[in-house]
Protein backbone atom coordinates (compact mmCIF):
# COMPACT_ATOMS: atom_id res chain seq x y z
CA UNK A 1 0.00 0.00 0.00
CA UNK A 2 1.26 3.46 -0.89
CA UNK A 3 1.89 5.64 2.16
CA UNK A 4 -0.25 8.77 2.44
CA UNK A 5 1.02 12.04 1.02
CA UNK A 6 1.75 15.08 3.15
CA UNK A 7 2.11 17.97 0.72
CA UNK A 8 3.29 21.47 1.55
CA UNK A 9 2.09 23.94 -1.08
CA UNK A 10 4.18 27.08 -0.59
CA UNK A 11 2.06 29.00 -3.09
CA UNK A 12 3.58 32.35 -4.17
CA UNK A 13 5.71 32.76 -1.04
CA UNK A 14 9.45 32.96 -0.45
CA UNK A 15 12.53 34.04 -2.29
CA UNK A 16 14.85 31.38 -3.69
CA UNK A 17 17.01 31.73 -0.58
CA UNK A 18 13.97 31.36 1.71
CA UNK A 19 12.74 28.32 -0.18
CA UNK A 20 16.16 26.71 -0.19
CA UNK A 21 16.52 27.22 3.57
CA UNK A 22 13.05 25.74 4.24
CA UNK A 23 13.65 22.77 1.91
CA UNK A 24 16.93 21.90 3.65
CA UNK A 25 15.25 22.14 7.06
CA UNK A 26 12.37 19.88 5.99
CA UNK A 27 14.84 17.35 4.53
CA UNK A 28 16.79 17.31 7.82
CA UNK A 29 13.59 16.89 9.83
CA UNK A 30 12.33 14.04 7.65
CA UNK A 31 15.69 12.29 7.95
CA UNK A 32 15.87 12.67 11.73
CA UNK A 33 12.18 11.92 12.41
CA UNK A 34 11.00 9.33 9.87
CA UNK A 35 7.24 8.89 9.50
CA UNK A 36 5.09 6.46 7.47
CA UNK A 37 4.16 9.16 4.95
CA UNK A 38 5.52 10.57 1.69
CA UNK A 39 6.58 14.18 2.22
CA UNK A 40 6.21 16.42 -0.82
CA UNK A 41 6.96 20.14 -1.17
CA UNK A 42 5.62 22.46 -3.85
CA UNK A 43 7.68 25.65 -3.88
CA UNK A 44 6.99 28.54 -6.27
CA UNK A 45 8.08 27.89 -9.87
CA UNK A 46 11.06 30.22 -9.50
CA UNK A 47 12.51 28.00 -6.76
CA UNK A 48 11.89 24.56 -8.29
CA UNK A 49 15.43 24.14 -9.60
CA UNK A 50 17.17 25.21 -6.38
CA UNK A 51 14.83 23.23 -4.14
CA UNK A 52 15.04 20.18 -6.40
CA UNK A 53 18.84 20.18 -6.15
CA UNK A 54 18.68 20.61 -2.36
CA UNK A 55 16.30 17.64 -2.02
CA UNK A 56 18.18 15.39 -4.47
CA UNK A 57 19.48 12.88 -1.91
CA UNK A 58 16.62 13.19 0.55
CA UNK A 59 13.30 11.41 1.05
CA UNK A 60 11.40 14.65 0.38
CA UNK A 61 9.84 14.78 -3.07
CA UNK A 62 9.30 17.78 -5.35
CA UNK A 63 5.98 18.96 -6.78
CA UNK A 64 4.95 21.76 -9.09
CA UNK A 65 1.88 23.83 -8.31
CA UNK A 66 0.34 23.67 -11.78
CA UNK A 67 1.06 23.01 -15.45
CA UNK A 68 -0.44 23.36 -18.91
CA UNK A 69 -1.79 20.33 -20.77
CA UNK A 70 0.37 20.92 -23.87
CA UNK A 71 4.00 19.83 -23.99
CA UNK A 72 5.01 22.98 -25.91
CA UNK A 73 3.54 25.86 -27.86
CA UNK A 74 2.59 29.53 -27.74
CA UNK A 75 1.23 29.62 -24.19
CA UNK A 76 2.81 32.70 -22.61
CA UNK A 77 3.56 32.28 -18.92
CA UNK A 78 2.72 28.57 -18.83
CA UNK A 79 4.94 25.59 -18.06
CA UNK A 80 4.62 22.12 -19.57
CA UNK A 81 4.71 18.73 -17.85
CA UNK A 82 7.94 17.86 -19.72
CA UNK A 83 9.60 21.03 -18.42
CA UNK A 84 8.60 20.11 -14.86
CA UNK A 85 9.89 16.56 -15.24
CA UNK A 86 13.23 17.98 -16.43
CA UNK A 87 13.40 20.03 -13.21
CA UNK A 88 12.97 16.88 -11.12
CA UNK A 89 9.29 17.16 -10.20
CA UNK A 90 7.62 13.92 -9.20
CA UNK A 91 4.16 15.39 -8.60
CA UNK A 92 2.02 18.19 -10.04
CA UNK A 93 -0.83 19.84 -8.15
CA UNK A 94 -3.88 20.30 -10.39
CA UNK A 95 -7.23 21.96 -9.76
CA UNK A 96 -6.41 23.76 -6.53
CA UNK A 97 -9.29 25.95 -5.34
CA UNK A 98 -7.36 29.14 -6.13
CA UNK A 99 -6.83 28.00 -9.73
CA UNK A 100 -10.54 27.25 -10.00
CA UNK A 101 -11.81 30.46 -8.37
CA UNK A 102 -9.27 33.08 -9.42
CA UNK A 103 -8.29 31.74 -12.86
CA UNK A 104 -11.62 30.02 -13.62
CA UNK A 105 -10.10 26.62 -14.33
CA UNK A 106 -12.89 24.21 -15.11
CA UNK A 107 -13.09 20.47 -14.52
CA UNK A 108 -12.48 20.01 -18.26
CA UNK A 109 -9.29 22.10 -18.18
CA UNK A 110 -8.01 20.22 -15.16
CA UNK A 111 -8.92 16.91 -16.78
CA UNK A 112 -6.83 17.75 -19.87
CA UNK A 113 -3.73 18.06 -17.67
CA UNK A 114 -3.82 14.62 -16.06
CA UNK A 115 -2.75 12.37 -18.96
CA UNK A 116 0.25 14.54 -19.99
CA UNK A 117 1.44 14.62 -16.37
CA UNK A 118 1.18 10.83 -16.07
CA UNK A 119 2.81 10.38 -19.50
CA UNK A 120 5.84 12.30 -18.21
CA UNK A 121 6.16 9.86 -15.29
CA UNK A 122 4.82 12.24 -12.63
CA UNK A 123 1.83 11.83 -10.33
CA UNK A 124 -0.97 14.39 -10.48
CA UNK A 125 -2.41 15.52 -7.17
CA UNK A 126 -5.93 16.46 -8.22
CA UNK A 127 -7.95 18.70 -5.93
CA UNK A 128 -11.70 18.57 -5.69
CA UNK A 129 -13.99 21.15 -4.13
CA UNK A 130 -16.92 20.90 -1.74
CA UNK A 131 -19.22 22.31 -4.44
CA UNK A 132 -18.18 19.75 -7.06
CA UNK A 133 -18.49 16.87 -4.57
CA UNK A 134 -22.02 17.98 -3.70
CA UNK A 135 -23.04 17.42 -7.33
CA UNK A 136 -22.69 13.66 -6.75
CA UNK A 137 -26.02 13.52 -4.99
CA UNK A 138 -27.84 14.42 -8.21
CA UNK A 139 -26.15 11.76 -10.34
CA UNK A 140 -27.53 8.58 -11.86
CA UNK A 141 -27.75 5.17 -10.19
CA UNK A 142 -24.33 4.39 -11.71
CA UNK A 143 -22.93 7.37 -9.80
CA UNK A 144 -24.56 6.22 -6.58
CA UNK A 145 -23.06 2.75 -7.01
CA UNK A 146 -19.63 4.28 -7.44
CA UNK A 147 -20.22 6.39 -4.36
CA UNK A 148 -20.86 3.24 -2.34
CA UNK A 149 -17.60 1.64 -3.45
CA UNK A 150 -15.30 4.66 -3.44
CA UNK A 151 -15.14 7.83 -1.42
CA UNK A 152 -17.14 10.69 -2.91
CA UNK A 153 -14.13 12.77 -3.80
CA UNK A 154 -12.41 9.94 -5.65
CA UNK A 155 -15.56 8.99 -7.53
CA UNK A 156 -16.07 12.59 -8.54
CA UNK A 157 -12.44 13.06 -9.52
CA UNK A 158 -12.66 10.13 -11.92
CA UNK A 159 -15.92 11.47 -13.33
CA UNK A 160 -14.30 14.89 -13.90
CA UNK A 161 -11.23 13.47 -15.55
CA UNK A 162 -12.90 10.72 -17.55
CA UNK A 163 -10.04 8.46 -16.51
CA UNK A 164 -10.94 4.80 -16.72
CA UNK A 165 -10.35 2.80 -13.60
CA UNK A 166 -7.15 1.13 -14.73
CA UNK A 167 -3.43 1.35 -14.09
CA UNK A 168 -3.76 5.15 -14.39
CA UNK A 169 -5.83 5.20 -11.19
CA UNK A 170 -2.83 4.20 -9.09
CA UNK A 171 -0.82 7.03 -10.60
CA UNK A 172 -3.19 9.66 -9.22
CA UNK A 173 -3.60 11.21 -5.82
CA UNK A 174 -6.55 13.21 -4.59
CA UNK A 175 -6.12 16.43 -2.65
CA UNK A 176 -8.52 18.45 -0.62
CA UNK A 177 -7.80 21.91 0.71
CA UNK A 178 -8.55 22.11 4.43
CA UNK A 179 -9.20 25.83 4.14
CA UNK A 180 -11.82 25.18 1.50
CA UNK A 181 -13.25 22.33 3.57
CA UNK A 182 -13.57 24.43 6.70
CA UNK A 183 -14.50 27.79 5.18
CA UNK A 184 -18.29 27.22 5.33
CA UNK A 185 -18.14 26.51 9.07
CA UNK A 186 -15.21 28.60 10.31
CA UNK A 187 -15.47 32.37 10.77
CA UNK A 188 -12.78 34.40 9.04
Would you mind describing this structure in some detail?
- The chain is of the alpha/beta class and 188 residues long.
- It has a single domain (5-129, 166-176), classed as TIM Barrel (Alpha-Beta Barrel), CATH 3.20.20.
- Helices cover 44% and strands 14% of the residues.
- The chain has helices spanning 16-32, 48-54, 81-86, 97-102, 107-119, 130-134, 141-149, 152-161, 167-170, 178-182; strands at residues 5-9, 38-42, 61-64, 91-94, 123-127, 173-175.
- It has a six-stranded parallel beta sheet, covered by helices on one side.
- Strand 2, helix 2 and strand 3 (61-64) form a beta-alpha-beta unit.
- The longest helix has 17 residues, at 16-32.
- Mean pLDDT is 77; it is low at 133-169 and 178-188.
Low-confidence runs of at least 5 consecutive residues: 133-169, 178-188
Q: Could you tell me the strand content as a percent range? A: 5-15%
What structural category characterises the helix and strand content?
alpha/beta
Helix fraction bin: 40-55%
Question: How many separate helices?
Answer: 10
How do the strands of the widest beta sheet line up side by side?
A: 1-2-3-4-5-6
Backbone shape: globular
Rg, Å, rounded: 17 Å
CATH H level: which superfamily? Aldolase class I
Provide the CATH topology: TIM Barrel
The profile of the biggest β sheet is:
6 strands, parallel
Secondary structure: number of strands: 6
Head-to-tail CA distance between termini? 38 Å
Total number of domains: 1
- The pLDDT mean sits at 77
Q: In the CATH hierarchy, what is the architecture at level 2? A: Alpha-Beta Barrel
Assigned CATH class: Alpha Beta
Amino acid sequence: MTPPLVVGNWKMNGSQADCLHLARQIARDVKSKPAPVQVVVAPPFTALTAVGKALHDSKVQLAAQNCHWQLNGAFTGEVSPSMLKELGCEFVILGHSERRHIFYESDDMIGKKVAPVIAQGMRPIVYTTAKSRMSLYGQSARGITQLQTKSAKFTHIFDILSVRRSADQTAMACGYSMEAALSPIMPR
